[in-house]
Amino acid sequence: MGEPLIQIKGVTHAYQTAAGPLPVLRDLNLSVPEGEFCAVVGPSGCGKSTLTRLIAGLMKPDTGEVWLHGERVTSPRKTVGMAFQNPVLLEWRSILDNVILPLEIVAPGMSRRDRVARAEELLSLVGLVGFEDKRPSELSGGMRQRASLCRSIVHKPDVLIMDEPFGALDAFTREDLWQTMHDLRMNEPFTALLITHDLRESVFLADEVVVLSGRPATAQHVLKVGLPQDRTLDVLYEPRAVDMLHVLRDQIQIAQGRTPGKDAA
Amino acid sequence: MMVLRKIAVPVIAMIVFLAGWEALVWVNGWPNYKMASPSDLWPAFWKYRWLFLEYGWQTLWRTVAGLMLAVVFGVALGMVMGFSRTMRDALYPLLVGFNAIPKATVVPIIALMFVGHHDMNTILIAFMISFFPIAVSVSIGLSTLEPEYRDILRSLGASKLTIFRKIALPKTLPEFFGALKVSVTLAFIGTNLMEIVEPHGKGLGHLFDSGKISADYPLMFAVLIALAFLGIVLFYIVVALERIFAGWAEREHS
Ligand SMILES: Nc1ncnc2c1ncn2[C@@H]1O[C@H](COP(=O)(O)OP(=O)(O)OP(=O)(O)O)[C@@H](O)[C@H]1O
Ligand SMILES: [Mg+2]
Predict the structure, then answer these.
(1) B200: which of A74, B4, B110, B118 fits an S-S bond (Cβ 3.0–4.6 Å)?
(2) Domain membership of residue A32 as a residue range
(3) Residue in B153, B158, B248 closest to A92 by CB
(4) 3-state secondary structure B63-132
(5) How many domains in chain A?
(6) Across the interface, do B156 and A135 touch by the CB < 8 Å criterion?
(7) Does A97 map to a domain?
């Protein structure tokens, strides 16, 4: 196993706003071992997206350190993949060329043929064969998000950071994409950090779920999922999964400053 | 079928317009110094066909030169203002003020500053009148680029230049061409303004002026038509370029 692939050590961060500093993260610690899938849940606006930007090296924390692969993160790295809630596909490129984009940055020497082959391989995994030459606007929301996922891993990153990638999709499409996510991971292992609002999603996809407290956020609770790797959606209806969902729900309510079990009317 | 329609509709509209014009003059019995009719124009065009070609060319190339200058300068200025908030805050009021000055008042000043350099004067006015929309659209396009778009490449450690080339530039192209369509007409107005207000003996503006002096009314109207024709040609050249370089944006609107 060795040391964790993602390590967040005592990170504190505040945004400077017109109304003074806004503390967002406070003394946050978190670590994800290599190959593990970590889901992060927490109240809206608690600092989850901020966390992804810090891990990706897009921002520097005020204090504390972010480590990836035993190296301190001070700037963006080529070995990271990112996916957002909005698929952010480039409308002037075909789906194929959108997926290839990271390779143009990370592997400038790679031939066009190899790039296309690599992209095709992923597109066929997510069921987008035949849509290579389409423009993003010609695809459905779920298909666009599939293409976006392909783009985020086309350069074989060792860390995949996802900020609510399925958040804008309907329930059925979302469950489809969970399955796609599983398939991708089975095919080429990566370490993942997934931000989500959906507790079922976190339990279904992750090996470990971290609940963040309200702002300024800190790791309030860590849940080891411990379900078998090759799960199907049925697992969510088993008692052990239901128990975990209960625990997470209570933790979210605590994070929101409410008493668990008592729903506000 | 579609192509035929695309050509036929505007052509028919043009014919209806000319027929209406001819009828209006005929019904009212206007003499040609009050309102020339299309049938008066052909003789004027024919009589001065070589002058039309020569002067039309002068107007055309000076307009295009001024417009190119406006594109280079406008894009550079737009980039500076798009990337730096400070520069945007600093330059915006200056730019708006400059744009608010009626260019007819600048014409004599420019003509005085560069006495004798007729081509340069004309190009300068065309440039000055037309760079504003380009600078504004590029700066807005760049400054409103969603951070997520930038982050796709930034998270991979791409350089600022690469991000500009692969994301910001193509994403701003539709706005740029929108502005260019406005600018091309403006540049054209600028060229003619100089040619008419400070006649140098060049360009369609000069031909118009000589028509005025010799009371050749059909010639004056013929110049107006020639100007309209050149304006249409320039405009559709820009539209064609837009199709080629930013055609992808069209689908989003339809
Ligand atoms: N660039 C910024 N400048 C100032 N404040 C910011 C900035 N980005 C985010 N914030 C504030 O920081 C807080 C945390 O933002 P963040 O986007 O990390 O939350 P989040 O947990 O991802 O929220 P959500 O679940 O709604 O996506 C919010 O209150 C937000 O208003
Ligand atoms: Mg967020």
Answers:
(1) B118
(2) 1-77+191-265
(3) B248
(4) HHHHHHHHHHHHHHHHHHHHHCHHHHHHHHHHHHHHHHCCHHHHHHHHHHHCCCCHHHHHHHHHHHHHHH
(5) 1
(6) no
(7) no
